[in-house]
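Hi R.,

Here's the chain you asked about this morning:
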Amino acid sequence: MSGIFDANNQDSALFIGGTRVSGQQVRSQNVMAAQSIANVIKTSLGPVGLDKMLVDDVGDVTISNDGATILQLLEVEHPAGKILVKLAQQQDTEVGDGTTSVVVIAAELLRRANELVKSHIHPATVIAGYRLACKEANRFIADQMAQKVDTLGAEALVNVAMTTISSKILGTYGTFFAEMAVDALKAVRSQDGRGKARYAVGAVNILKVKGSSARESSWFTGHALYRPFTGAAMRRSVTSPRIAVIDFDITKTRMKLGVHIVIDNPDSLEAIRKREADISAERVRMLLDAGVTAVFSTRGIDDVYVKMFAEAGAVTVTRVPKDDARRIARGCGASVLTTLATLDGDEAVDVSALGSAELVEQVRLSDDDVVVVRGAREQHAATVILRGANDYMLDEMERSFHDSLCAVKRVLESGSVVPGGGAVEVALDIYLESFATTLGSREQLAIVEFANALLSIPKQLAVNAAKDSIELVAKLRAYHAAAQNAAPDAPRSHLKHYGLDLHEGKLRDNVKAGVLEPAMSKIKMLKSATEAAINILRIDDMIKLVPEQQAEDPHAHM
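And here is the predicted structure, written out as tokens:
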């Protein structure tokens, strides 16, 4: 055996190679790991949060204040820390915004739960209280805080996008990028099988072009590829094209490795070479005879076959990234052809696998040629051209714009928003503290701690803005307490929309100010943070096995 348990666990009857940490010690370690990760990203929270510069082992630099991006680039080794990293990635995938908030809340919930356990409250009681508090909080958000976006006017969607990018690099450009995100996403509207509207963020393609200022960014309907047409002699545009998306080479056919051809007559060698060239030429003719006028290939096409396409009036694009190829095929109603072989052993083009669009053209963008597919048959697409000074700026612009697209998508599909600036968290704090007093069990202690943990968001927002967090949060709690105690039609009931104004250091009605967030973002954030904290809190024993040392080879020196 390479080792046994630590000295502080000598009473254990188990003897295996590794170390064991149990009880309060493992809980404290998990809380410390969670707090360490939250401390890294909490200063990037809010519209005046700071950026992080991360340098990897090969010297590549990433500058960002997006929580999921920062945590993804950190090499976290602690198991509890990895749970928080996955939590941020899950929030980024499902909602697109709130990645920093969810980690800060989860770490605070865990810290407060650990204090309760130290006070001899059983973890099962704390877990039950947290689950009940999360359920009540989500119900309160849906019933009391959420507002239908239809009642707020057309600018509500722009305000949602503006709130999302206000803390990022695009926030300095006013509503320019917020309006672009809303317009681009509305252009890709589609319907599912039940007739509900759907907005696919993947249908909005983002191209990054160095040069010019960010305000020269633009968008247009259609899918753009950062690739030119293969041949210089090809037409610059094709109207109403039949589109084939292929995933095989159109090159001179060569025998597979290990295949040998033995010939008796040297004259047969030339015939073999000619047949190798004719096989691909026949495939080109099959595509042309099927009416194909635009070919998008994920692989290469030899010049001799490019010439055949050009003479027939067709256009080709090679080395298309597979993600783009699948997106074009899905939008045009085509299928990606991996081969032309049929079940009978012959080769033929399946006409049903071809797609169509209104126009395929090549346009000049900065110093590069870009191919654009407009008017796809099945799914409309939009392309956003981001302009910036360097790669670091463009990468952060892309992350920021993607977050705004995700936030607008959630609002368009769910139709409800909540006020931002800490309004929801403070309202939940007041409501849950009042709700806890109605319980006659120990769970009320956990619910009170859950409510106080939510205040970490408005407090951190004020601290990052260099404002007095104690005074602002205390005043905001008084506003929300008055709103919840007032009648529904009383003037004070509108105080529930009040949140922080971090630029002026005061309170304001954030619904009127246009500081709005998707209601789904808050609900998902609370659910995810609560589940992550509970999963870590349930751990009371950690056994880490050490690999057994291999015996040294006495002949290794030879």
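One quick note: The longest strand covers residues 204-210.

Cheers,
M.
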